[in-house]
Each structure stands twice: as structure tokens, then as C-alpha cells.
Design goal:
The complex is a heterotrimer of chains A (about 260), B (about 375) and C (about 325).
Chain A (H helix, E strand, L loop, with lengths): L1 H5 L1 H22 L15 H7 L2 H34 L4 H12 L2 H14 L6 H26 L3 H8 L4 H30 L2 H6 L7 H10 L4 H31 L1
Helix pairs in contact in A: 2-12, 3-12, 4-7, 4-9, 4-11, 5-7, 7-9, 8-9
Chain B lengths: L2 H4 L5 H16 L28 E7 L7 H9 L2 E7 L2 H10 L7 E5 H9 L34 E6 L1 E6 L11 H4 L9 E3 L3 H11 L9 H16 L3 E2 L4 H7 L4 E5 L10 E4 L6 E9 L6 H11 L2 H11 L6 H10 L1 H6 L7 H5 L2 E2 L7 H13 L2
Parallel strand pairs in B: 1-2, 1-3, 6-7, 6-8, 10-11
Antiparallel strand pairs in B: 3-10, 4-10, 5-8, 5-9
Chain C lengths: L2 H4 L32 H29 L2 E3 L5 E5 L2 H6 L2 H33 L3 H12 L6 H12 L4 H8 L13 H25 L3 H9 L4 H29 L3 H6 L7 H10 L4 H29 L8
Antiparallel strand pairs in C: 1-2
Helix pairs in contact in C: 2-13, 4-8, 4-10, 8-10, 9-10, 10-13, 12-13
The chains are: A mainly alpha (about 260), B alpha/beta (about 375), C mainly alpha (about 325).
């Protein structure tokens, strides 16, 4: 029936649209020549150049530090917040506050923090980016963990409380283990969001400590060498691996729980 | 750390100096003295025999604007660590230098008018010329730049002018006037670019009209705006950073360019200063007041002014340096390069014919508005 | 750019797209019979996170808000003198038109995303389980490489000697390369490319939840497929549509990178204006006022969303 097939046109168009640029990037990263348009033969030379690029390496190190810091902070604060919001309050206002960082345009958050840091005269550095990223990192961890909490069975917690366990014991022995997959997913989310975040880092990083997206931004502005394509390809490969591993892990944890 | 916070623990004289400084910073519109001498009241005592190996230095500079191994050179010759931050435009550098109490930057590379603005804000350390003996290598003209006469707070690193850079094979008649850029022939549509950095966006139009590039007259700026809007409607594209590469790839045929960014080593590419005249710009080195490594900062600037070091700029990125000793060395060693590169051949006297861009204080917002009017126009 | 809007939680089950709780479809937990615990426990759980959000989110936003009524300092920062000048300037046609045209661009992008995203989500929801997962991951995958690099790829694709022109010339549609870069269309393309998945995921979640029996019932009652779609399927997915629209519209409105890289400096959006007030013009109060305008647009949008989902709400097929 032609009408049925018609709906497949936008479906396939979506994937062509999403993947054409990426295929071009990957192919061009193996280009022997410098032109971004003409393929002049297979070569790994841009990967070599990339390995020798100190600015990119430094950016990568900074990004990883920021992402790890953000993940740790966001996971702890976000999990507590999620449990607190689900079990210890019914305030709609708090709900809204918890979600605000997720719906606020990043530019608005970025200038807010820039103004704030300037007002308290805080010296910028990687710590200022970590603090900034945690604002939204925490919100996303809280959101993911809450989804899990809402579906979780509360009878165990109630039983624990009825049997006289302290709130802390109930939390560490019962709630946390139930939430583990949600927390892991939230942490991974905070990590990946932080790694690719540009706008907030752009406004809150010290000029001496740019994160990788900032380095890439200044490189793109100066016209791009195929080094950038090589970098994109590597990021893509790493991400792909992470996705596969994450999928396996969730399946594993789900089958265990 | 903010200077003002320091003052609590310092003797009365310094407190007074700090107050002057604070007032100068807050006063805003009150005074914009041309020689910028006012804030230098707070000069600090520096120790010429300080142990530099105990200091370290952070600079901010444009990408590719200094030798890749500069850090190694500095470590070997001066004995301290050098860290380099990159900024892509003056504005980015300014934002970072002015947004916070301490940016962590010791030495910044910014264009002259921005150095002037930083100084007026009281953010710069007055130079201790006795710690920079190599200042003697500079052309006498280098102390005549109107944003900082006498090099009180800035040392010029490079200087040059703005003109038209074009492909001889794609442009039928060689351009001679700013009008050739603003109003190009029909076959060049979509292949002409201008810069968007406020002052250089206005420059071609102002010069075309025979006006000063430092004008603050609303009527004159309105005339310039008309010309620039017409140019945009004619299909003008805007590019501050990649016009050289676009010319080489043939994606652009005729662009507004700083002399050093025009890739004239390519035989098909030429640079011309339009007959209506142009600017004299200078990128300078300045020392931040917040620096805790001021001795190292002076030693670094002195090292850059060494002829063998400074001539790297001319040899590798084709910018002229205001350093006579370095230019002499460049001319001696690079006859071929010089023959091919017309901008490099310009003398200080020729350069001084250009008008220096100076900071306009409050009136600089007029240029910001002009730039917004051009880019917002559909 | 808005990385925080970018990625689906990798471990989250299908049906829980990123930030889904922001959407109208997730209500409060329905079963809640226990007490709220002790005050101490409440403080221990809620204290740190809320304290953090107050200091690093509410205070900064309040600062931005308060800056709108002060004068600019010459070198950035603010002079504490009252003025309404910033608001007068906001309604200066120069700036107001940019705000309007940004709203237009964001709306256009959102509609385009809906047009292409809805059928895509619809098809995905009907796929066998295994393919469903693969199709969903494939939607999210592009987000896993740097946003800026992906945008840059469009320059390679759309430039004069680029692939798109080559292809068009190759099939004989045109004989001379088109100027595809540096116009309004390029910006919309870039925005659409960056945020399309944020439309597809909530739509998928909404469609997937539909009870297929509803459609069957409608068909059994003699409705044609088109009629079934418009009178049964679509209304039930409106909350998902609205969520998707908000997810796409918000990051589009605040964007400044895409207009800059793909716009060739020929057009700007309100994001560019805000960025420039802070990083170029050093006019923080006016930058704050522009940010306030963006927030105002969003508040209106969120109210619209809440209203619309209430109108369509209450119908079956949605999780209560």
C-alpha cells in the first residue's frame, strides 16, 4: 500500500540527514591531502598530527578532570535530592526548582554564573567549570533517579522503617541498592553531558585552562584542518564503545535486580 | 587577587595610591587622558635581581602568533616556566581580563586600543623600562603610537596596516580603492569578505568617505552605515579569521585583510593599501597589575625584543615588527621572502601614514551599535 | 551546543527520554501513603542539593535579573544607579527585531523538526523490539561526537565545491554550484540537525505508550486511517509533541554558535546579542535584559504547553 510506504520516507530521510555529515567527517579524517573536499588517498597522518597537538591534549585532560569532578558531585547531590523530593516533601515548587536547570537555556545559566563569579571575585579555573556543570548535572541525575524511584516498590522501605531501622540505615541498606541502576545511568549521563558542554564552560573557564570543546571552538573559527576530523572520529569510536558497554551493563544490572 | 583588597595590609602611601586607582577605575567617563599617565601612580617596586626561577609566567596570545617552542626557549634562557593561553579575538581576551579580579594572566597580547582601554581601567602595570634594555632595539617611531606615546604601559609586538588582499587570477581589474571592496563587480558576488571586529568593519566605509577612523560624529557614522548596509545587500560576507585560507582555496576572491594575514607568498595573491588610506594597528604586550611575576614578565618582554627572537615573527607569520634590529636581521637573512612579500617591505615612515586606532571611551558603544546594525540587517 | 539537552540517558529504558520528567506526561507518583519522614532526614536529603541550587542557580539568576535595572560599567560589571534605559533599548527596533526573528527561526526549526520527527518516531514505535533499540540508539549516536565538529561538517557539505552541490550538479538539477551556505536556511538546517533527536525521543515515548487497541477500535468502527490518526492517535500524543517542541525550541532560541559558524556573519540571533553584550560590548546590564527577554518568551511557552496539555489531558492513553 503506497500510503503505508510513504511514512518511511521521512524515517529514512532522518537517518540520512543525521549521518551524512558524520560519514563525511570520518572519511575525510583518513584523507592524505589537506583539502576538506577532495579525497586524495588513504592516510593516517592526521591522527599522527593529532597525537602531537599539545593544545588538544591539554584540553582533553582538562575536560576529563571537569567531567569526573562534575560526575562525582552531581551523583551525590542529585541522588540525595531525588530521594528527598520523592520521599520527604510534596512541594511542587521544589520540583520546579529541581527541573529548572534542565529547561533553562544554557546561555542564560552561563551568564548568570559569569556574573556570580565576578561578583564574589572568584578566580576562574577548572573548579569554576565543575561547579557550573554540576548545576545541570545534578538536575539530570535527580531526574533519572526519580524516574526509578517512582517505579520502585516502596514496601521494602516501609517494612524496614516499621521494623525500627533508622532513616540512614533504610537509605543505605534498602533505597540505595534499589536505585543503583538509576544512579549509574544518571552518573553516566552527567559525565557525557559535561564532556561535550561548550557554552557554560566558555563563560566560566579560565583562559589558561580551556576544555576540549573550547579548544575545538577556537580551532573551528580559524578554519579547520583534517586533524579535527580525526578527533571527531576518535570521539565517535569511544562513544560507540561506551554505548555498547552501557547497554550491556544495564541489561546485566536489570537481570540481576 | 584584587589590588584593593591588598591595601588593608599596606602602608598609608600605598593605600592612597590604591584609592586613586579605585577612583580612576570607577570614575568611568571622567577622564580619558590621551597619554594614559594617570593610573601609573601605583607603580610597584620591582627587584632587578629577583630570582626568576622562582617565578612562572602565563601569557595570553593569538594562536600561532609565537614560536611553538617558546616555552622551551624561555625555560632554557630565562629559567622559568611559561604557560600559554590562546584567545581568538581581542574581545575574548578583554572579556577574560576584565571579568574577574584575577584572570591568572601575567602578560597579555592585545591590540593597541585595547591596551589603552585596559590601562584606563587601571589594570596594567606601568612598564619599568630599566628592566627592558632591549627597548632600545625598537624604531623611534614605535614610541609614537598614539594609544601609548612613549611606551608607558605597552610594548608593540607587531605593527601593520589593513588593506585589500585579492586573487590576481579571479579579479579582473586590480583594486585600488575601498570602493572596490564595498561595491565589487557583479562577477565577484559571494566571494568578497570584510572583517566584523567593530573598528575594522567601519574602517573601509569611513576611509572611503574620507573620514577619520576614530570619528564619534553621529552623522558621519550614519553615512558609513549606509555604505556598509549597501555592501551587505550586495552580498558581502563577513570573516575575521579564515579569509586567508578562503583566498587560497578560491572560495573568496577579494577580502579586507590585515597585511600579515594576506598570504602573499602565494604568487596569485596580492595585497594593496587603498588610495584613500588606512590604519596603523599594533599588537602589543602588556603586563597585568595582578601579576605576581612582574620581574619575570619584564624579562619575558625583554627576551621577545631580542632581534633573533623577534625576527621569528617576520620570518614565519609575515608580520612586520617595530624592532629595527630584528627587521635588519630579517632583511639580511631573507632576501627571497622579502622580495615576494610586499607588505613586509613597508617602512616605518610609510606605516605612520596610516591613522592609529585609539580607544574611544564611552563613544566606543557607537561602533558596537553600528556593528549590530550591520549584522542584524536582513 | 546545549549539551545538557543533547543526550538520552544511555542506560535509561526506552520511554524515558532525557529530562522526560520535565514533560507533562510524568505526573507525581501516584501511590504515596507514607509519611514524609523526620525533619532531620528531610534536611539531610534535601539540604545539600537545594542549597547548591539556591547558591549556584537562584542567586546567579537573581543577579542577572537585578542587573537589568542598573547602568553598565565602562569596562563590564555594573554601576549601581537605577535606570530603565535597558528596557527602552530592548524595544529599540534594532534589538527587538533580532529577538523577533530569533523566535521566528526557532519556531521554524521546531516545526520542521516536528514534521520530520513525528513520522520517524511513529515508524520507530512500530518496529520489532530489537530494531526499535537500534533505531533509537542511532538517533542519539550523533550526539556522542562533539557538537561543534558536527556543525562544522555542514560547512564541508554545503560549500561551493561541497558534496551537496556536487550531487545536485551530478544528477543534473543545477549546472552551477548554488550559494547554500551563510543564509537563514543554513542556520535552520544547522539547528534542525543539532536538535532533531530531542523532538524524536519524547514523540517516540508518547506514541509507544499508545494502546494499539484504540486504533483497532477506531478502524473497526469504520474510520479511515487518516481519520483515525487525526481523531485518535494524534490527540493522544499531543503532550509528547509539546514536550518535543519545548526541547527543540529552547536550545534554538539561546543558540549563538550555529548562526556564527553557519551564518557567515550575515545574520545574528538573540544568543549572539547576549554573548556580545558580555564578551564584546561589556554591557552586562543590557545583556541581562536580553536574557530576561529570552526567559520571558520561555515562560510564555511553558504556560502554553501547560495549558495545551491540560486541554488534551485527562484522556486515556497517557500515564496518569
Amino acid at each position: 500500500m503506497p500510503r503505508r510506504r510513504l511514512i518511511y520516507v521521512p524515517f529514512w530521510a532522518t537517518y540520512v540527514f543525521l549521518y551524512t555529515p558524520i560519514i563525511v567527517l570520518v572519511v575525510m579524517s583518513f584523507n592524505a591531502g589537506k583539502s576538506p573536499y577532495v579525497f586524495e588517498g588513504l592516510s593516517l597522518k592526521w591522527y599522527g598530527e593529532l597525537a602531537g597537538n599539545d593544545t588538544i591534549r591539554q584540553g582533553l585532560v582538562n575536560t576529563l578532570i571537569v567531567a569526573v569532578g562534575t560526575t562525582v558531585l552531581s551523583t551525590v547531590l542529585g541522588t540525595l535530592l531525588a530521594v528527598g523530593m520523592a520521599r520527604h516533601t510534596r512541594s511542587r515548587l521544589l520540583d520546579a526548582l529541581g527541573l529548572l536547570p534542565a529547561v533553562l537555556p544554557d546561555l542564560v545559566l552561563a551568564i548568570g554564573l559569569l556574573v556570580f563569579y565576578a561578583t564574589i571575585k572568584m578566580t576562574l579555573g577548572l573548579h569554576s567549570v565543575i561547579l557550573a556543570h554540576t548545576v545541570f548535572g545534578m538536575a539530570f541525575v535527580a531526574a533519572v533517579v526519580r524516574t526509578r524511584l517512582t517505579h520502585a516498590d516502596t514496601s521494602l522501605e516501609e517494612a524496614s522503617r516499621d521494623l525500627g531501622a533508622s532513616p540512614l540505615a533504610t537509605f543505605t541498606r534498602i533505597t540505595l541498592p534499589t536505585l543503583a541502576p538509576g544512579i549509574a545511568a544518571g552518573a553516566l549521563l552527567a559525565f557525557t553531558l559535561s564532556i561535550d558542554e561548550f557554552v557554560i564552560a566558555f563563560f566560566t573557564a579560565a583562559p589558561t585552562e580551556p576544555t576540549l570543546p573550547i579548544v575545538i571552538y577556537s580551532m573551528v573559527r580559524f578554519g579547520v584542518t583534517p586533524e579535527i576530523n580525526a578527533l571527531a572520529t576518535i570521539l565517535l569510536a569511544v562513544s560507540f564503545t561506551v554505548i555498547i558497554v552501557a547497554q550491556r551493563m544495564t541489561r546485566l544490572t536489570e537481570s540481576l535486580s | 587577587m584584587s589590588r584593593i583588597r591588598y591595601t588593608r595590609h599596606l602602608p598609608a602611601a600605598t593605600v592612597a595610591a590604591g584609592l586613586v586607582l579605585a577612583l580612576a577605575a570607577c570614575g568611568g567617563s571622567s577622564s580619558t587622558s590621551a597619554d594614559g599617565a594617570a593610573p601609573s601612580a601605583a607603580a610597584e617596586q620591582l627587584n632587578p635581581n629577583a630570582d626568576l626561577s622562582k617565578q612562572s609566567l602565563t601569557i595570553t596570545i593569538w594562536d600561532g602568533y609565537s614560536p611553538k617552542d617558546l616555552a622551551d626557549q624561555v625555560k632554557k634562557k630565562l629559567g622559568f616556566e611559561l604557560k600559554t593561553a590562546i584567545h581568538d579575538t581581542n574581545e575574548t581576551a578583554m572579556a577574560k581580563l576584565t571579568a574577574n579580579a584575577d584572570s591568572g594572566i601575567d602578560v597579555a597580547f592585545v591590540s593597541g586600543q585595547y591596551a589603552q582601554a585596559l590601562n584606563e581601567q587601571g589594570l596594567l602595570e606601568p612598564l619599568h623600562s630599566e628592566l627592558i634594555p632591549n627597548l632600545a632595539n625598537l624604531y623611534p617611531e614605535a614610541a609614537q603610537l598614539s594609544f601609548d606615546k612613549g611606551n608607558k604601559f605597552s610594548v608593540p609586538y607587531t605593527w601593520g596596516t589593513t588593506g585589500i588582499c585579492y586573487r590576481t587570477d579571479l579579479v579582473k581589474t586590480p583594486p585600488t580603492s575601498w570602493n572596490d571592496l564595498l561595491n565589487p563587480s557583479a562577477d565577484l558576488k559571494g566571494k568578497v569578505t570584510m572583517m566584523t571586529t567593530e573598528r575594522w568593519l567601519a574602517l573601509p566605509a569611513l576611509k572611503q568617505l574620507g573620514l577619520s577612523i576614530n570619528t564619534t560624529d553621529d552623522k558621519q557614522l550614519a553615512q558609513a552605515k549606509d555604505l556598509l548596509l549597501k555592501a551587505k545587500q550586495g552580498g558581502m560576507l563577513y570573516d575575521d579569521t579564515t579569509f586567508g585560507a578562503k583566498l587560497e582555496k578560491g572560495e573568496a576572491a577579494l577580502v579586507e585583510a590585515w597585511d600579515g594575514w594576506c598570504p602573499t607568498t602565494n604568487p596569485k595573491i596580492k595585497f594593496v593599501v587603498p588610495k584613500e588610506g588606512s590604519d596603523l594597528w599594533s599588537d602589543t604586550m602588556v603586563i597585568m597589575k595582578t601579576s605576581k611575576n612582574k620581574e619575570a614578565a619584564h624579562a619575558f618582554i625583554n627576551y621577545i625584543l631580542d632581534p633573533a627572537v623577534h625576527s621569528w615573527v617576520g620570518e614565519n607569520i609575515l608580520y612586520k615588527v617595530p624592532n629595527k634590529a630584528a627587521m635588519d636581521l630579517l632583511i639580511k637573512n631573507n632576501q627571497d621572502l622579502l622580495a615576494k612579500n610586499t607588505p613586509l617591505q613597508m617602512t616605518p615612515a610609510e606605516l605612520l601614514k596610516g591613522e592609529s586606532i585609539v580607544d574611544l571611551g564611552e563613544a566606543s558603544t557607537k561602533y558596537t551599535r553600528l556593528a549590530t546594525e550591520i549584522s542584524a540587517n536582513q | 551546543m546545549t549539551a545538557k539537552h543533547d543526550i538520552a540517558p544511555p542506560g535509561a529504558p526506552p520511554g524515558a527520554p532525557p529530562g522526560a520528567p520535565a514533560g507533562p506526561s510524568t505526573g507525581r507518583p501516584s501511590r504515596r501513603s507514607r509519611g514524609l519522614g523526620t525533619a532531620a532526614a528531610r534536611l539531610a536529603f534535601l539540604g545539600p542539593g537545594l542549597g547548591y541550587l539556591i547558591v549556584l542557580l537562584l542567586v546567579p539568576l537573581a543577579l542577572v535579573l537585578s542587573y537589568t535595572v542598573f547602568r553598565r560599567g565602562r569596562f563590564g560589571g555594573v554601576v549601581y544607579e537605577w535606570t530603565l534605559e535597558n528596557f527602552t533599548r530592548l524595544f529599540d527596533p534594532l534589538y527587538f527585531d533580532v529577538v523577533l526573528s530569533s523566535v521566528k527561526t526557532a519556531t521554524l526549526t521546531t516545526l520542521a523538526a516536528l514534521l520530520i520527527g513525528y513520522p520517524t518516531a511513529y515508524v520507530i514505535a512500530g518496529l520489532p523490539r530489537k530494531w526499535k533499540t537500534i533505531a533509537l540508539i542511532a538517533v542519539v549516536m550523533p550526539f556522542w561526537t562533539n557538537f561543534l565538529i558536527r556543525v562544522y561538517a555542514w560547512i564541508i557539505l554545503l560549500s561551493g565545491p561541497g558534496l551537496v552541490n556536487e550531487a545536485l550538479t551530478g544528477i543534473g538539477l543545477i549546472d552551477k554550484p548554488l550559494q547554500l551556505l551563510y543564509n537563514q536556511g543554513t542556520i535552520v538546517t544547522g539547528l534542525l540537525y543539532s536538535y532533531l533527536p530531542l523532538m524524536i525521543l519524547p514523540l517516540y515515548a508518547a506514541i509507544e505508550r499508545l494502546d494499539p487497541q484504540l486504533r483497532e477500535a477506531s478502524a473497526n468502527l469504520g474510520a479511515r486511517p487518516a481519520r483515525t490518526f487525526w481523531s485518535v492517535t494524534f490527540p493522544l500524543t499531543v503532550p509528547g509533541v509539546l514536550t518535543g517542541c519545548v526541547f527543540v525550541f529552547v536550545p534554538c532560541l539561546g543558540n549563538f554558535v550555529i548562526p556564527e559558524i553557519l551564518g557567515g556573519g550575515r545574520s545574528i540571533m538573540v544568543g549572539n546579542l547576549i554573548r556580545d553584550q558580555f564578551l564584546k560590548a561589556r554591557d552586562w546590564p543590557f545583556g541581562s535584559t536580553l536574557a530576561l527577554a529570552v526567559i520571558a518568551v520561555l515562560v510564555v511557552l511553558l504556560f502554553l504547553q501547560a495549558w495545551a496539555s491540560r486541554v488534551y489531558g485527562g484522556t486515556e492513553g497517557r500515564r496518569a
